[in-house]
Deoxyribose-phosphate aldolase
Amino acid sequence: MSASPTPPASASGARPLTDAVTEIRATDPGRIGQALAQRPRADLAGAGRLMVIACDHPARGALGAGERPLAMADREDLLQRCVTALSRPGVNGFLGTAEIIEDLTLLGALDGKLVWGSMNRIGLQGASFEMDDRFGAYDAEGIETSHLDGGKMLTRINYADPASATTLEASAKAIDSLSERGLNAMIEPFISRWEGGRIVNDLSEEAVIRSICIAQALGRSSAHTWLKLPCVSDPVSMRRVMASTSLPSLILGGEVSADPEATRASWAAALELPNVRGLVVGRSLLYPGNDDVEAAVDAAVALL
C-alpha cells in the first residue's frame, strides 16, 4: 500500500487505513515481518538534520493534545495524521511503539525513513506507579529484528522516588544492548517530581543540565547514544544546557502550544547550536491548534 494523505476519519466516517491493516493482521500476520524486513531504510550517519515525528504517547495512556483529552484515541484519525506528516518533504524519521510502527510500515508510510522504537511505556500517565518506567514495549532484540534504527527510552529521575533507581539501571542495560548491535540509543531525560498527585518535569536550566549529565553517563559506551531534550525557552540558557554535552541531541516538541510561533522561534534558536541535530515532535505537529497538519509540519521543517 502507498502512503497518501487522506481527510480525517471524522470528516467522512470511512476507515480505509484501519480496515486495511486489520485485514492483514487477521488473515496474514506474517506479512508484518516481511514488510519490516523489506522496508527501504535510511542512513542515520548521512541523514543530516532530522525531522522526526513522534507518536508513542498513547502507549502510556497519554491521549490528550491541547484541550482535547482523547485526541489520540481514534486510530484511523491518528494513522491519517501520521501518514500526512510523514509524507511532507523534509520529514525523515518516526518514533513509536510496535503496533503503530507496524501499521505505518504496512501502509508504506515509513519507506525511506529512520525509525526508532519506543522502549519503556509502563509508567502510565496519572498512575500511582507513573515513575516506574519499566521496559514493556520494544527491547533491543525486537528493534534489531524489526530492522529499526534505534530505541528511545524515557529516563525520568525523581530524587524522592526509589523507582528512579530501577529506571536508571534499566536504561543503562538498554543502552548496552542497543550499542552491542550498533543501534542508536535515544535517551529522553528529565528531573521530575510529584506535585499535586501528578508528575511534573523540571524544565529549569539547572535541572535539564543535571538530567543530561546523569543520562549521558549511562551504559558501557556512549558511542551510539543521542539525547532527546526539552527546549529551554531562553536562548542563553539553552546554550548553557547544550554546553553540558558532546552528544548529538534532538529537541522535543512537548505539549501543543498556545503560541506556536513562539515555540517555533525557540526551536529555531536551539537549532543554531552545533550539537542540536534536529527536532522530534509529536502532538504539536499531529494536532496543531488549527488542525492543519501539513502546514504545521512544513513550518517546522523550514526551521531546518
